[in-house]
Design a protein that fits this description.
The protein is mainly α. The chain is about 80% helix and about 0% strand. The longest helix has about 40 residues.
């Protein structure tokens, strides 16, 4: 069968539906904070021990991201989807039955996160392998699914824990992940997607000069994403604590945290949509500038009334860059190299999660506030503006 015939047999809608069904429950990994208090009581673990589970999950999620492209072309996409969901479901099931902190960390932090990483970039590659006409909008949508899943999961987890307990809630999540894997596998089979090995595509389509140019673009995009994620993940991981430090009441801080998460999800979609219409450097620099304005305003006017909208601006800037990054990869690189390239750029997410969020917590212990951390976030966004302006404009697809 020719390549043209293969493309004609593909169903982008089925691939997109599979990615949606698979990603939403896996995005609940970001709602782990809901489990902290009940797991403390159940396992007798300390808050710092349980908080480290999220750090472990960041590392293994990134490992999954970068292993997935090595499987493209070696195993069918249906097997890739089924395998990622099965590993994640097994991990959550192990966490539900875990009698100790160690098994909880292995189940939730290692297996669940690893399967989620494989699914995240695998689903993106499968959708981008189909003939999509709005790559910016589509990729913005894809990267918005995980925070949207977390936003939906958090209240569901809270209700489940109150009514049935933490173990039953985790067991229910394992069932949902497994069921979504079955549905997503069936949908992906209907999509007709076939993946090529990225190494073969790179060798066939890239000469030495083009390779050097792509390397330059890669590192610019990598650092643009790093600077935005450094500030954004500090807000995403500690929003309630930061708001409380600025004098916002507990109930208001919790509601604002949910709103900030929703704003980040919407901004991811918006960032991709904007790249369909505007040059990448304009959108990237503007997104970083929005976050920078938030950091400057909160530094100059550190009041409860200013804290909520300014943290929202920092989060929106991060969300926009997430959408811009995925969309830019779709424009700058061949379709078959999307997953490989995106997974390497997403290493920046891991680095960001392990830098300023941890530094901010330490600075709070030393100073009793987040003023210095906010200024560091603003400095990162300023660097992001400068690097973002050096990105090339994308070539429009017919």
């Amino acid at each position: 069968m020719s390549q043209t015939e293969t493309v004609l047999l593909q169903r982008p809608g089925a691939a997109l539906a599979a990615a949606t069904v698979l990603s939403l429950p896996l995005g609940s990994i970001y709602a782990f904070s809901v489990f902290l208090a009940p797991l403390e009581e159940l396992l007798g673990a300390s808050r710092s021990d349980l908080a480290s589970v999220f750090g472990i999950s960041v590392i293994f999620f990134t490992i999954g991201l970068n292993l997935a492209p090595r499987l493209f072309g070696f195993i069918p996409v249906t097997a890739l989807v089924a395998l990622s969901a099965a590993v994640s479901a097994l991990g959550v099931g192990l966490a539900a039955a875990a009698p100790s902190f160690t098994l909880l960390a292995v189940g939730y932090g290692v297996l669940f996160a690893f399967g989620g990483g494989v699914a995240y970039v695998g689903a993106q590659q499968c959708v981008n392998a189909t003939p999509i006409t709005r790559p910016g909008l589509v990729n913005g949508y894809l990267v918005s699914l995980f925070p949207l899943g977390a936003m939906l999961a958090a209240p569901a987890f809270g209700w489940g824990i109150d009514r049935y307990g933490v173990r039953a809630t985790l067991a229910a999540l394992a069932v949902v992940v497994a069921a979504s894997g079955v549905v997503a596998t069936w949908l992906m089979a209907r999509s007709g997607v076939r993946l090529s090995r990225p190494s073969r595509v790179a060798a066939a389509t890239t000469d030495a000069a083009a390779a050097r140019q792509q390397s330059s673009v890669f590192w610019k995009l990598f650092f643009v994403f790093t600077f935005a994620a450094t500030a954004g993940l500090m807000v995403l991981s500690q929003a309630a604590a930061i708001l409380a430090a600025y004098g916002v009441g507990k109930a208001t801080a919790l509601a604002a945290t949910t709103g900030i998460t929703a704003a980040i999800a919407a901004a991811r979609l918006g960032g991709g949509l904007m790249v369909d219409r505007l040059p990448v450097p304009v959108v990237a620099a503007t997104a970083q500038a929005i976050a920078l304005v938030g950091a400057i305003l909160l530094t100059l006017v550190p009041t409860p009334e200013m804290a909520i909208p300014t943290l929202g601006l920092i989060g929106i800037g991060y969300g926009l860059i997430s959408g811009v990054t995925a969309a830019a990869v779709a424009f700058y690189w061949p379709k078959a190299l999307f997953g490989q390239t995106a997974s390497r750029i997403y290493i920046a997410w891991c680095l960001a999660a392990l830098t300023l969020p941890l530094v901010a917590a330490r600075l709070f212990d030393l100073t009793g506030g987040y003023h210095i951390a906010i200024m560091l976030a603003g400095a990162a966004n300023l660097c992001g503006v400068l690097v973002g302006l050096t990105l090339p404009s994308q070539k429009r697809r017919a």
